[in-house]
Amino acid sequence: MRLAILGASGHGKVVADAATLSDWSEVVFFDDAWPNLTQNGPWRVAGGSRELMTQATQFDGVIVAIGNNRVRNARQRELKDAGLNVVSVIHPSAVISPHASIGVGAVIFAGAVINACARVGAGSIVNTGAVVEHDCSIGEYSHLSPNSVLAGGVSAGRMVWVGAGASIKQLVVLGDEVSVGMGSVVLNDVPAGQTVVGVPARLLNSQN
Ligand SMILES: CC(C)(COP(=O)(O)OP(=O)(O)OC[C@H]1O[C@@H](n2cnc3c(N)ncnc32)[C@H](O)[C@@H]1OP(=O)(O)O)[C@@H](O)C(=O)NCCC(=O)NCCS
């Protein structure tokens, strides 16, 4: 089983590790940002997205490993529209309820826990050690950074970014494209597009 990864980044290395520890026997990177790059750590970089398209039949699956939520969204859609088989990658040490759902193109890293009836949207990243409690709903192309915790029933929109070590109280609603600073504790709903930081979390640049 051969996996193509678009995005020869540090994040891509973690995706490659998770892939080779699970179902994939070979990983090859592609990247448009660094045309002269030939290696990403121990893995080969075989060109950019043009080369990926021409070599697509040589791969059993493809995934986008780009941390920026908007860019990951755009690139995954391009690959799907071109008819490529976009897959998810799940580290073998992640614990995922049989009653949870994981969207296409998502990555679930080592030690992450996704509990019963939680839903993780397409193209999302559940990073190392992150906890998604029961009945949470995570929109497409979101990123839950390492050791972040979403308590039961949290609803996060599309392209939400939860920083490392942040905690979200049960049933809180995070609007589309919300960012939560690392280490923050979010107790109340956050409107779309806003950034909150601190303990308890407040709107960034807000006087309140
Ligand atoms: C929230 C965040 C996105 C803001 O980034 P930014 O817009 O560049 O903001 P700045 O660094 O300019 O900081 C703006 C203000 O917010 C404060 N602030 C920033 N992040 C904070 C945080 N996590 N907790 C508390 N305060 C924070 C800064 O101290 C600064 O305060 P000041 O204006 O009183 O000096 C960023 O700090 C952050 O936490 N990112 C998450 C990083 C992460 O988890 N990475 C994991 C990747 S796998």
Automatic annotation (TrEMBL):
Binding residues for substrate: 9-11, 31-32, 67
Q: Name one Pfam family in it.
A: PglD_N
Q: Which UniProt keywords apply?
A: Acyltransferase, Repeat, Transferase
The positions annotated for binding acetyl-CoA are 143
At the top level of its lineage, which domain of life is listed? Bacteria
Say yes or no: keyword Transport present: no
Q: Which InterPro entries match?
A: AcTrfase_PglD-like, Hexapep, Hexapep_transf_CS, PglD_N, Trans_hexapeptide_repeat, Trimer_LpxA-like_sf
State one molecular function term (GO). Answer: acyltransferase activity
- Write down the position(s) of the site called Increases basicity of active site His: 135
Active-site residues, record numbering mapped to chain: 134
Q: Describe the location of the PglD N-terminal domain by residue ranges.
A: 2-77
Q: Which NCBIfam families match?
A: NeuD_NnaD (TIGR03570)
- What family is it from? Belongs to the transferase hexapeptide repeat family.
The protein here is known as Sugar O-acyltransferase (Sialic acid O-acetyltransferase NeuD family)
Organism equals Marinobacter pelagius
